[in-house]
Amino acid sequence: MDAITALIVDDSSVMRKIVERSLRQAGIELEKVMEASNGAEALAALQSNKVDLILCDINMPVMDGLEFVRQAATVDKAKGIPIVMITTEGSESHVVQALTAGARGYIRKPFTPDQVKEHVLPVLGKKQ
Amino acid sequence: MSTDTSLVTRSHEENWLPIIELAVEEVFEMMVGCRVKAAAQSEHRTNEEFTAMVGLAGALCGLLAVCCDTKTAGEIAQRMLGGTVDSQEQVADALGEICNMIAGNFKNKLAGTDDRCMLSVPTVISGGEYSFHSLADGTCLETVLLFEGAPIAVRLQLES
């Protein structure tokens, strides 16, 4: 598998580190890891960087994850980049909203590295 | 047709303590990498030097708080990060996320509530020289769990 650039969007820096570690534990080689603490920062990061995978929280200040997914769908540079939500919001309506807006995967916090692997590898087109 | 299940869920508040404890145990096992066990409150007094809080609004209104001493908060952060902790902000961030995940995991376990209950962004207070006054006038459920022998108090305060 080629090394990828991942954008991790979460208002908690500790959670961003945990997500990064989980990706590495899933066997995903990371060439570069970018971080954003809300949806607005993530949209700005996409304007000037090539990103292969986005992992995004929902409950964040400034711009939440669902709004980010909706807006990312209208940004040329973000089109085709798989987005996987990682969030404490576990309801079916949140899952449906996220997937309808364009997210390709949904992981509920708390999570294990195996769950990250299970949801992320398929969206990268990799077998588990 | 929508069905309001709030009365159903609220009438079982007295049974929620094991659900809170299960939510805490799962969060610690998955995100901190260790097991916590419920303990008798009377035998373990929590030194509340760190208090993380998440507000609940909607089908449930109130507050979920996680309280522990400074050393315990630091150890939780260290385990979550898998190494050293650089700052007090990281400790607060880690405890806030623990509280957030416990609140989310708890509400997701209550049938009919997860969809209609919103969580606030976590707030963390460090330092024990304060008094907590909740305006929520309903049930207060509290449990103490042991993390490496140190007590962690988890409190759910609800409006009636």
Let me know the largest β-sheet of chain B: 7 strands, antiparallel
**CATH fold descriptor of chain A:** Rossmann fold
Shape of chain A from CA axes?
globular
| Separation of the first and last Cα atoms of chain B | 26 Å
> How many β strands of chain B by DSSP?
7
Q: Note the beta-strand portion of chain B.
A: 25-35%
Helical content of chain A stands at 40-55%
Overall spatial form of chain B: globular
Quick description:
By secondary structure, chain A is an alpha/beta fold. Helices cover 41% and strands 20% of the residues of chain A. In chain B, helix 3 (70-81) crosses helix 4.
Task: Walk me through this protein's architecture.
The complex is a heterodimer of chains A (128) and B (160). By secondary structure, chain A is α/β, with parallel strands linked by helices. Chain A has one domain: 3-Layer(aba) Sandwich (Rossmann fold). Chain A is 41% helix and 20% strand. Chain A contains five helices and five strands, in the order E-H-E-H-E-H-E-H-E-H. Chain A has a five-stranded parallel β-sheet with strand order 2-1-3-4-5, sandwiched between helices. In chain A, helix 4 links the parallel strand 4 (83-87) and strand 5. The mean pLDDT of chain A is 94. Chain B starts with 5 loop residues before the first helix and ends with a strand. Residues 1-8 of chain B have low confidence and may be disordered. In chain B, strands 1, 2, 3, 4, 5, 6 and 7 form a seven-stranded antiparallel β-sheet that branches. Chain B has 160 residues and is an alpha+beta fold. Chain B contains four helices and seven strands. The interface between A and B is medium-sized, with 24 and 25 residues.
